[in-house]
Design a protein that fits this description.
GO molecular function: zinc ion binding
Subcellular location: Nucleus
CATH architecture of the largest domain: 2-Layer Sandwich
Radius of gyration: 22 Å
Helix content: 40-55%
Protein name: Transposable element Hobo transposase
CATH topology of the largest domain: archaeoglobus fulgidus dsm 4304 fold
Main location: nucleus
Strand order of the largest sheet: 3-2-1-4-5
InterPro entries: RNaseH-like_sf, ZnF_BED_domain_contain
Number of strands: 5
């Protein structure tokens, strides 16, 4: 049991700080754990495959259960769902993140939680986005809720909302970003030179 708790704690630590699982094999970390009596011997340190397969699965299931419990506890009739596609700068893989927002009818408080971040293969068509959205709604029992989508103004996002037959609102943050970065700063020559130089650092 103690080994399991240690493995899960290290896995959660690595996930939160975006530390690769193979770092557990480093001698410095092992010595640190032993010096501070976290482990009795170096053999107590879990291997990277234990972290990535067993512990990560347990943590995911616990987190999934906690999120469902949080939503079901309030059982809101109407929810807002923000969704955005982004690319990992390290491996250049595209992902889509869904975040749920609702007002608790019990304490009249705004609540939010990330539902999932999933790999979104190309092409990022409205149909592919709808498929990921349907999976998220089903996984968290949200199909019967009144849903308002908050997205950027991409044609694929707008079409996805149309296909789902739900109301869609444009994201203010994306609008401000485009106003400042695209419509304003990108047209100022001196500012643009600074941005280009900064990206090379």
């Amino acid at each position: 049991k103690k080994k399991k708790e240690l493995s899960d704690s290290i896995t959660l630590w690595f996930c939160r700080d975006l530390i690769p699982f193979h770092e557990i094999e480093k001698e410095g970390l092992k010595d640190f754990l032993k010096f501070h009596n976290v482990i009795q011997s170096l053999s107590d340190v879990p291997c990277s495959s234990t972290l990535s397969r067993r512990s990560l699965t347990r943590i995911y299931e616990d987190c999934l259960f906690a999120v469902k419990l949080k939503i079901n506890g309030d059982n809101p009739n109407m929810v807002s769902l923000t969704m955005d596609a982004w690319t990992d700068n390290y491996r250049h893989k595209p992902f889509m993140t869904f975040t749920l927002h609702w007002i608790s009818p019990i304490i009249t408080q705004l609540k939010s939680c990330v539902l999932q971040t999933s790999f979104l293969p190309h092409p990022h068509t409205a149909n592919n986005i709808v498929e990921e959205l349907k999976k998220a709604l089903t996984r968290f029992n949200l199909n019967e809720k009144i849903i308002i989508l908050v997205t950027d103004r991409g044609a694929n996002m707008i079409k996805a909302a149309t296909y789902m037959k739900v109301e869609r609102i444009s994201c203010i943050a994306h609008g401000l970003h485009n106003l400042v970065m695209v419509d304003t700063l990108s047209k100022l020559l001196e500012v643009n030179k600074i941005i280009v130089k900064a990206r090379t650092i």
